[in-house]
Write a structure and sequence with these properties.
By secondary structure, this protein is mainly beta. Helices cover 6% and strands 60% of the residues.
Length: 99
């Protein structure tokens, strides 16, 4: 199931290399998420989502955080556990961060 959501991106980091002979290449994105209503807590937290390879980081590297974006996500399940995968991230028109 695909869904689109307006989100606030709080941070991101790419990771690429080799560990014990096994290559890895990914980007993690940290998106603001509201705390579940009814819990004895308030406010928001950031949730980590995998977003493909480290090449995706290049698309948002020069943006100033936090920024608003449209997230395209896919919900998948193996019948027991459910996961949300970040398919794409489309930032609103945002000025690049100052050097």
């Amino acid at each position: 199931m695909l869904l689109k959501s307006n989100v606030i991106v709080r941070g991101a980091r790419p990771s690429k290399g080799d560990y014990n002979g096994r290559p890895y290449d990914n980007t993690k994105v940290y998106i603001e998420t509201e705390i579940k209503a009814g819990e004895r807590a308030s406010g928001s937290v950031t949730s980590e989502y995998g977003w493909g390879s480290s090449d995706n980081y290049d698309r948002i590297e020069k943006l100033e955080y936090p920024f608003k974006a449209e997230a395209v996500m896919q919900i998948v399940s193996n019948g027991k556990d459910t996961r949300t995968i970040l398919i794409d991230l489309i930032p609103e028109k945002t000025a690049p961060k100052q050097a």
